[in-house]
Design brief:
heterotrimer, A mainly alpha, B mainly alpha, C alpha/beta, C: alpha/beta, 6-stranded mixed sheet, 4-stranded antiparallel sheet, 10 strands, about 25% strand
């Protein structure tokens, strides 16, 4: 075997290694999705979407309380975090030179790096201790602490792409800076900002750890801000570690619904709002 | 409050009496609007900064009893016994670091391989499709990975993977021992899957930033594609790849639910990769809601602080590496 | 002779340590077109950008001296730059319509954000300004198309219409045709001679023929200094300074 054939063989060898690595990445993804669909789809029923849990031993019952709870908690978290995040991101991009802006940037970076379970402790200390009990409010706050840094960073990155001459054109019309900022710069990029917001929300919707000891969980549909509230991820967790087959089956169905919801949101964002550069910026900080 | 310009096709523009004319001087005059806005937006920023500082202080305060009670022993002792109110967190630190490092060892080569495949080998569209799949992994909630790990991966590890590993590496004590499927290995595998997207996407970005000219130069010398990849792509990207790996490590350290469901939650230092163990994140997830004594809660908060500290360090290192890399790229 | 509408006295501008404009004084008369010519980097753009204080957008820029407009020094802190820019509008080098807005929205955005909500009034202004900018006939059937869908020359006329909608007595133009082809340039020059009837135009240009064609007065800058200012007919046929002559005859620049 001469040297050239050796080099060629090496070339093929490493090419096949690269292909194998792709297979190794795709297999688990495929297995997870397939297994969740396979185990979860059989449990889909009207009961599942419209009923609350039945006592152990009784067949049937559903997760309507957890689905409603997740929607409630995510809405609450977004309501708090999205406006603050968008404004903070705008601040960092448009007025990002001062001392306050620099500290804010550090704070947001820090918050991005906080493990989600520690976010749960934050919300516990902030809400559960003073209000003396698990509550939807605590869960919402926890989710908002997850959403806030993501929205801030994606908004900042998007607005930084707006060329200076666009801002100058606005100012040259004799508009105050805040109007240029919100009505021309922010409004002109609303679609991209929204993409970032939706991705952040979909991420929060799947979080379990921060809700374990904040929103905790219950077994009925609740809209009380200050009492415990179920959520899909926590309900899946509780059911999956339970010894009852029926509950485990429901956990799979819950996982199916959750994954469907989140991947659905993700893919929709990626296909419909796919403006290349924007998406790169939005997804970069993952 | 604003002076709307009087417009019609046949009148000349009429300058108002002075450049700062119009109804003004009030609280909401044009000049004040921007000042007010800046003040408002700055106060919001200060609020967010203040909130974070408050949270950190409150967390520290909550953990303080454990600090004064156990001191350094908290990280040197592995005796964790809520019943006796004795808390040492060493086993969690070991569990976290061990699972994360095994995960990195598994995930890093695979991620680099996929990133290379996407940027250097496949046509753009196929590369993008694989990229989309990788991003989908990142979007799957960790509870779903945990569920899958508990009911699918754990039995697989127990029945298929364990015999293989024992028959090949079993002579090393660390790769031998009773296996129940749930334990360090399963947790590491799950973590590896979960951090692949993080490492892949950073590597992809790094590889993309290699100028085409360098690739062409290598190919022009008559090198094979693999030699080109090694010389023109991997070599100059080395520190960027390291950055991606450390960033992945940061994610692995903080991951909670998937690990909590498959690691077995034994507060012991694992004797082999098949043993049950616990991580800093998993112990908080498991015990926090049911912690009765104040000292227990305090100890868990201290574990949280340690966890935060470890991820912070990993993220800082990753950032430093990437920052250095970027600077070298530009300079 | 009528009173000058803008009177610049001993204006100095610095970017950090760089002394960009070194003591320039010029008077601008109402309803005239005034050109500023000079080699690249002579401070032409800096100078016009200071006339409506857009220069403040560049970090480290500061100005000294006086620019009198309607009896006030616009550089003084009492004058609100926002209000000033409603009186002294600006058209930039590269056409820059707002990318997310339609042609109609682009035209009236200034007025709209000043609080004008009346739809028919806005429509009326849009038509007037697009007509003044000689763009109306080309866009009247597609007012809801994005502004960026137009050609470069049309975009620049849209930007002029956008500035006119705020109705500023003075219009600054920073090399408005440098990114355009000769035909589009011709249209904009035609437009400027039209605008002169109602507005005072101060235009920076790279193109000496353009200055000679349209400007009533021309100033010649080199390295931040005013070499010569006067009637265009004088500057281009009978310059007083040797340097000016060298420049306009193409001996350097």
């Amino acid at each position: 075997m001469n040297y050239y054939t050796w080099r060629k063989a090496k070339n093929y060898f490493f090419h096949s290694l690269l292909s194998i690595s792709a297979v190794l990445v795709l297999i688990p993804l495929f297995l997870v999705v397939a297994y969740v669909v396979y185990k979860g789809i059989s449990g889909l029923s009207l009961d599942f979407f419209f009923n609350t849990p039945k006592p152990v031993g009784e067949v049937g019952g559903g997760m309507v309380h957890a689905i409603m709870g997740t929607l409630y908690l995510v809405a609450l978290g977004s309501l708090i975090a999205v406006p603050i995040g968008v404004v903070c991101g705008t601040f960092l991009s448009e007025f990002g030179d001062g001392k306050i802006a620099k500290s804010l940037r550090v704070a947001i970076d820090l918050l991005t790096g906080v493990p989600s379970i520690v976010i749960g402790i934050f919300a516990y200390i902030l809400i559960v201790i003073p209000f003396k009990g698990f509550s939807a409010l605590a869960g919402g706050i926890a989710l908002s602490l997850i959403i806030l840094p993501i929205v801030t960073r994606s908004t900042e990155e998007i607005l930084k792409l707006v060329p200076q001459h666009i801002k100058e054109a606005g100012l040259a019309l004799g508009l105050p800076r805040w109007k240029v900022t919100y009505f021309i710069v922010v409004k002109g990029n609303l679609k991209a900002i929204l993409t970032g917001v939706i991705l952040a929300i979909s991420r929060a919707a799947g979080e379990t750890a921060p809700l374990l000891f904040t929103a905790f969980g219950n077994r009925y549909v609740s809209t009380e801000l200050l009492s415990p509230m179920a959520s899909l991820p926590v309900q899946i967790y509780n059911y999956s570690i339970s010894p009852f087959d029926d509950w485990q089956a429901q956990a799979w169905t819950g996982a199916f619904v959750l994954i469907f919801l989140i991947l659905g949101i993700n893919l929709t964002c990626r296909t419909f709002l796919n403006r290349k550069k924007i998406l790169e910026k939005v997804t970069r900080q993952k | 409050m604003e002076n709307v310009v009087n417009h019609s096709s046949n009148t000349k523009p009429t300058p108002s009496s002075s450049p700062s004319g119009g109804p003004k001087g009030g609280f909401f005059s044009l000049k004040n609007q921007d000042k007010l806005h800046l003040t408002a937006i700055k106060s919001l920023a200060v609020f967010v900064i203040g909130l974070l500082i408050t949270l950190l202080i409150l967390l520290l305060k909550q953990a303080w009893p454990a600090v004064t009670e156990f001191g350094v022993e908290f990280i040197t002792s592995d005796w964790w016994n809520p019943v006796e109110d004795q808390f040492g967190g060493l086993s969690f630190i070991v569990g976290t670091v061990l699972t994360s490092i095994i995960a990195i060892i598994i995930a890093a080569p695979v991620s680099i391989g996929v990133a290379l495949l996407m940027t250097e080998v496949l046509p753009e569209r196929a590369g993008k499709t694989i990229g989309l799949f990788v991003e989908m992994i990142a979007a799957i909630p960790s509870i779903v990975f945990g569920l899958w790990g508990l009911f699918y991966l754990a039995p697989f590890v127990r029945e298929t993977l364990t015999p293989i590993i024992k028959s090949t590496l079993g002579f090393i004590p660390f790769f031998n021992g009773p296996s129940f499927g749930i334990g360090v290995l399963t947790a590491s595998l799950i973590l590896a899957i979960m951090i692949i997207p993080t490492i892949t996407s950073l590597c992809r970005e790094v590889f993309r930033s290699v100028p085409t000219l360098q690739r062409e130069a290598a190919l022009g010398l008559g090198s094979t594609r693999w030699e080109m990849i090694r010389l023109a792509v991997i070599k100059p990207s080395f520190s960027g790849i390291m950055g991606g790996i450390v960033l992945g490590l940061g994610r692995a350290l903080g991951e909670t639910m998937a690990v909590a469901m498959v690691i077995g939650n034994q507060p012991e230092i694992p004797k082999s990769i098949f043993s049950s163990a616990a991580t800093m994140a998993s112990v908080i997830a498991n015990e926090y809601a049911e912690a009765d004594s104040d000292l227990h809660v305090s100890a868990l908060c201290l574990v949280g602080i340690l966890l935060f500290g470890v991820t912070l360090i990993a993220n800082a290192i990753a950032r430093l590496i990437v920052w250095n890399y970027n600077r070298k790229q530009q300079g | 002779m009528s009173q000058p509408i803008i009177s610049v006295k001993d204006l100095h501008i610095w970017y950090n340590d760089f002394h960009a404009i070194k003591g320039i004084s010029i008077d601008y008369l109402p309803n005239t077109i005034n050109a500023i010519i000079g080699p690249s980097g002579c401070g032409k753009s800096t100078f016009v950008r200071t006339l409506n204080r857009i220069h403040e957008e560049v970090p480290g820029a500061r100005a000294q001296g006086s620019i009198m407009y309607m009896g006030k020094n616009i550089l003084s802190s009492e004058v609100d730059p926002v209000d000033l820019r409603r009186q002294i509008g600006m058209v930039f080098q590269k056409p820059n319509p707002f990318p997310s807005m339609s042609i109609f929205e682009n035209t009236v955005i200034g007025l709209k954000l000043q609080g004008e909500k009346n739809k028919s009034k806005l429509m009326e202004v849009a038509e007037t300004c697009l007509k003044k900018a000689a763009l109306w006939d080309e866009v009247k059937d597609k007012l809801n198309k994005p502004g960026t869908s137009l050609s470069g020359g049309q975009q620049q006329r849209l930007c002029i219409a956008r500035s006119l909608a705020v109705n500023p007595p003075v219009l600054l133009m920073d090399e408005p045709t440098s990114a355009l082809d000769p035909i589009a340039t011709g249209k904009i020059e035609e437009l400027m001679t039209e605008l002169k009837k109602e507005y005072t135009v101060i235009i920076v240009t790279h193109n000496m023929q353009q200055a000679a064609r349209i400007a009533d007065y021309t100033s010649f800058f080199i390295l931040g200094e005013l070499i010569e200012h006067g009637l265009s007919s004088d500057i281009f046929t009978n310059p007083k300074q040797k340097t000016t002559e060298d420049y306009i005859t193409g001996r350097f620049g």
